[in-house]
Amino acid sequence: PTILCLPRSFECSQKNTALVPAAALGIGGILVFWLRSRHKIQTIEMGDGWWGSGERPLKGKEDESIRPFKIETSDKEIEDLHRRLEQARYTPPLEGASFHYGFNSSCLQKVVAYWRNQFDWHKQVEVLNKYPHFQTTIEGIDIHFIHVKPSYVPHGRAVQPLLMVHGWPGSFYEFYKIIPLLTEPARHGLDGGDVVFEVICPSIPGYGFSEAPHQKGFDSIAAARIFHKLMNRLGFKQYYLQGGDWGSRITTNMAQMLPQSVKGLHLNLIFIGRLGLRRTISVMLGAYVPWLVGLTREDVRRLYPFIQKNIYNLLQESGYLHIQATKPDTAG
């Protein structure tokens, strides 16, 4: 019996010898896939959209021309504005309320008086027209933007396109002071290295001189797609992005949508993803039993005053955000 078992044992050992490398290879492959998937860029489908009035035309190509645009006003428009400012009526503010219940009407009267009697609207129009303005039609709506190129490019310098996107409540005008530093750094005593930028500052649809969407469902992903189309229409295949506030979300979506087109992304506001149920429960338990969720005393000392303060401020100061997010057609 012993002699008969030897071949079987030998046969089993041969099978085990063959299985070990196969199992190791399989486990190794799974491990490599897991490690690579952790660092995989989460992309967004570009898709397409139509935000113009009525149904999207079935035939014909959209007008892709770039049209010069100039900001204009008239004495008649300014007189009409003055008349409406003069006819404004105010309710007295609550005593001692300051700005805790909203914009203080006593202060508002001073602001309106400045608009009516001191602000030079014609001069402001001249300031706004300092840089070249353009419009182009994308997905059925007119998109406004300024496009500033460097007047002089030193030998050996590379000109890089930079798209800068504003937020709420803001506009393309936010970037007027920094544009010369980006397009002509040497003139302002800056060492730009080997890089000079040409700057494109669009108005988000519905802001400034960009047409507002006529259809429901417009979001930051739609704005990101439109701005990619804008840069492509201007002849750029790769470009840098900068964004703050809603511009931060839009440019982040642009980088997620076409990462191969985005050479660099600069943000001055970071949107943090959802905590998730597990993280939320950990934060809640951490205030009472920090050791249970792995928090130290120093973590508690730093974390919870910050959360309490910011959650309170968020609830106190974000009423406008809830209205805009849920009832954007509400006037006010």
TrEMBL record:
<keyword id="KW-0443">Lipid metabolism</keyword>
<dbReference type="GO" id="GO:0019369">
    <property type="term" value="P:arachidonate metabolic process"/>
</dbReference>
<keyword id="KW-0378">Hydrolase</keyword>
<keyword id="KW-0492">Microsome</keyword>
<keyword id="KW-0216">Detoxification</keyword>
<protein>
    <recommendedName>
        <fullName>Epoxide hydrolase 1</fullName>
        <ecNumber>3.3.2.9</ecNumber>
    </recommendedName>
</protein>
<dbReference type="InterPro" id="IPR016292">
    <property type="entry name" value="Epoxide_hydrolase"/>
</dbReference>
<dbReference type="Pfam" id="PF06441">
    <property type="entry name" value="EHN"/>
</dbReference>
<keyword id="KW-0058">Aromatic hydrocarbons catabolism</keyword>
<dbReference type="InterPro" id="IPR029058">
    <property type="entry name" value="AB_hydrolase_fold"/>
</dbReference>
<dbReference type="GO" id="GO:0033961">
    <property type="term" value="F:cis-stilbene-oxide hydrolase activity"/>
</dbReference>
<dbReference type="GO" id="GO:0005789">
    <property type="term" value="C:endoplasmic reticulum membrane"/>
</dbReference>
<keyword id="KW-0812">Transmembrane</keyword>
<keyword id="KW-0256">Endoplasmic reticulum</keyword>
<feature type="domain" description="Epoxide hydrolase N-terminal">
    <location>
        <begin position="66"/>
        <end position="175"/>
    </location>
</feature>
<dbReference type="InterPro" id="IPR010497">
    <property type="entry name" value="Epoxide_hydro_N"/>
</dbReference>
<keyword id="KW-1133">Transmembrane helix</keyword>
<keyword id="KW-0472">Membrane</keyword>
<dbReference type="GO" id="GO:0009636">
    <property type="term" value="P:response to toxic substance"/>
</dbReference>
<comment type="similarity">
    <text>Belongs to the peptidase S33 family.</text>
</comment>
<dbReference type="InterPro" id="IPR000639">
    <property type="entry name" value="Epox_hydrolase-like"/>
</dbReference>
<keyword id="KW-0488">Methylation</keyword>
<dbReference type="GO" id="GO:0097176">
    <property type="term" value="P:epoxide metabolic process"/>
</dbReference>
